[in-house]
Write a structure and sequence with these properties.
The structure holds two protein chains of two kinds.
Chain A lengths: L1 H17 L5 H10 L2 H18 L1 H4 L31 H37 L1 H15 L3 H12 L3 H28 L2 H8 L4 H37 L11 H8 L8 H28 L6
Helix pairs in contact in A: 2-12, 3-5, 3-12, 5-6, 5-8, 5-10, 5-12, 6-8, 7-8, 8-10, 9-10, 10-11, 10-12, 11-12
Chain B lengths: L1 H28 L14 H10 L6 H13 L14 H36 L4 H15 L2 H15 L16 H27 L2 H8 L4 H21 L2 H7 L2 H6 L5 H10 L3 H29 L7
Helix pairs in contact in B: 1-13, 4-5, 4-7, 4-10, 5-7, 6-7, 7-9, 8-9
The chains are: A mainly alpha, B mainly alpha.
């Protein structure tokens, strides 16, 4: 019985050996491509990014307004998706709203990554009083619900695209910082780091070649899943009238503005909310897929 | 246990002081004041009098200590936007409304979430399971103001079954805010109940229960659910304070005059005494609620050790 099994194993070894050596990224890509939901969501994200990048070509002059008394339903007077409360083409506003969402989502995560990873690396690598100091800041930022903190910052510094990005990034770095720190703490004690140290590899090279790549995958997952959160926060702030200023298009602001017309011009609220839901779902599914692909241990 | 609680409370006090200092300094750094030279010209003597009356001639740290001394006695000054009321009165008026809405939502969302999770787990991979999973995912990913707008469009504008918004003059007014607020937590409850039950169903003691001929209903109700609920409570505990304070969008959307809506209005009005007081209040409540949920774990699951 066991002889047969080992025979099979021997014959099966050959093609495996002749295959090029696999690494984390190739394995992850293969696992990701087998996940239908994540692949579908990735395609949607691709389309959204395309729309965002080429918003000016696809929808020139998004701020052009018809007279206010000429509000249109979808399909009326050549406006496929109608016009908004001041008579601007909804389709163009939506396209530019997607661009704003993407700009916010990506820049927030970039800033949050820089702040969070730097503080987390400092805390985890240096320890001691640096760690103590960083953790007190983290506690300060978790003492208050994040959205309220963003609202508070905006009440002081005012709205606008730049301030909104800054306010959301200032609440978004905390999780990344904690994650980086926790990763470093657990990795420092691992055998392969001990082995590297025993081999006489200098500390900087250990950090760069051994610690960072292993701490990277959870960070990538956190950053990807943070994009929809940032987009949601911007939409929420703009919905409340405390986010992006006119004339920049923002999906959340469109929802807020639609409210006065909800009994008649239903499309003004429905279209941007559908788009927000689509963005949130597609980014979340890509993030979930990435998590399953990069960290198969987490999968249940 | 006592030592643990004392340590946590000390940490809470420290964070509270930190929050108050940061909030106070940020408030102070905001441009615009009653004595700004080019915009608000005043005779020097009058200006000096006003500053002295409001204590603004004192050094910053004295101002901070004065403010905190008053705040600890419950005196946060007067709200700019409704000057007839003290800040404490405004909070006393709006906070109970948010707690009512949040409390009812917690009970309904968790109850229905656990129930749906049980149904989905019993009939794994059935149509019911897929529908429940879909609703849970929707509630988890889609922002609550988006869901709120959909609810309004369908049930208030199109079908006219429910009132558009408001509070306190019709019991049906609570239905839509509750759904919009509760769909997310319900989604989490459903997901974890399902996953946890599916896990428990493979345990040996469930096989034993089935083997000794217990009815399936008894197996689920008596043996499976009790053990499946422990991890769910661990996951959901920290969500409860979210529900009680995180009503900002929903209250704005449905014109519920609670604390969340009031906070937004204070921010829009630049009502700094109000914002400052709310930040401090929320920091304290947030910390206390987390502490209580942590303590509850030990009651529910004796295996949890506090450190």
């Amino acid at each position: 019985m066991s002889a047969i099994v080992s025979d099979k194993a021997v014959t099966a070894v050959d093609p495996i050996i002749s295959r090029p050596p696999s690494n984390l990224w190739r394995d992850a890509a293969i696992r990701f491509s087998k996940n239908k939901l994540a692949m579908g969501a990735l395609i949607v994200v691709g389309v959204l990014v395309f729309i965002g990048i080429f918003a000016d070509v696809l929808a020139p002059q998004p701020n052009f307004a018809r007279p206010i008394d000429a509000r249109k339903f979808p399909g009326e007077a050549g406006y496929i998706l109608g016009t908004d409360d001041v008579g601007r083409d909804m389709l163009k506003r939506l396209i530019h709203g997607v661009r704003t969402s993407l700009i916010v989502g990506i820049s927030v995560q970039a800033i949050a990554l820089v702040i969070g990873a730097t503080l987390g690396l400092g805390a985890g690598f240096l320890g001691g009083w640096v760690d103590f100091f960083v953790m007190r800041i983290v506690e300060l930022f978790t003492a208050i619900p994040q959205l309220l903190f963003a609202l508070f910052l905006i009440s002081i510094f005012g709205g606008g695209l730049f301030n909104v990005i800054l306010a959301i990034a200032l609440i978004g770095w905390v999780d990344i910082c904690r994650l980086t720190r926790a990763q470093l703490f657990s990795l420092r004690e691992k055998e392969f780091i001990e082995a590297a140290r025993a081999l006489g590899i200098p500390p900087f090279q250990i950090a760069w070649r051994h610690l960072l790549p292993n701490a990277l995958t959870p960070l990538i997952i956190a950053v990807t899943l943070g994009v929809p959160t940032a987009i949601f926060t911007e939409a929420g702030l703009s919905f409340l009238g405390l986010g992006i200023n006119e004339p920049t298009a923002s999906l959340g602001k469109m929802v807020g503005a639609s409210f006065a017309y909800i009994r008649v011009y239903w499309h003004m609220g429905l279209l941007p909310t559908l788009l927000i839901a689509l963005i949130m779902l597609s980014f979340s599914f890509v993030g979930d897929g990435l998590r399953d692909a990069l960290d198969p241990r987490l999968r249940k | 246990m006592v030592a643990y609680v004392a340590q946590r409370l000390a940490g809470l006090a420290f964070v509270f002081i930190l929050v108050s200092i940061v909030a106070f300094l940020l408030m102070h750094a905001t441009p615009g004041g009653p004595s700004d030279e080019p915009n608000m010209p005043l005779p020097p003597a009058a200006k000096e009098n006003i500053l002295r009356k409001c204590g603004l001639d004192q050094p910053l740290h004295i101002q901070y200590i004065n403010y905190m001394a008053n705040a600890l006695r419950g005196d946060f000054g007067y709200s700019f936007s409704s000057p007839t009321e003290t800040v404490a009165q405004v909070i006393g008026r709006t906070w109970p409304i948010s707690i009512t809405l949040g409390g009812i939502t917690v009970v309904v969302a968790l109850g229905s979430g656990i129930l749906l999770g049980i149904l989905a787990a019993i009939q794994q991979n059935s149509i019911l399971d897929y529908v429940v999973t879909f609703i849970a995912t929707l509630g988890l990913t889609v922002p609550n103001f988006v869901i709120a707008l959909w609810l309004i469009l369908v049930f208030a504008v199109e079908l006219r079954w429910l009132p558009l918004g408001g509070w306190g003059d019709d019991w049906r007014q609570i239905i839509m805010p509750m759904i919009a607020l509760g769909l997310g937590p319900m989604g989490i409850a459903t997901r974890y109940t399902r996953a946890s039950l599916v896990d428990v169903f493979t345990a040996d003691y469930i096989r034993t229960a089935r083997a000794k001929g217990l009815a399936e209903r008894m197996v689920v109700m008596r043996h499976a659910i009790k053990n499946a609920l422990i991890p769910i409570i661990t996951v959901l505990g920290p969500r409860i304070p979210d529900l009680i304070t995180g009503t900002i969008f929903v209250e704005t959307m449905f014109r519920v005059p609670g604390l969340g809506k009031f906070f937004v209005e204070s921010v829009l009005d630049r009502d700094y005494p109000m914002i400052m007081a709310l930040m401090l209040l929320i920091a304290v409540l947030w910390g206390l609620v987390y502490l209580i949920t942590d303590l509850l774990y030990t009651v529910i699951d004796p295996r949890v050790k506090l450190t």
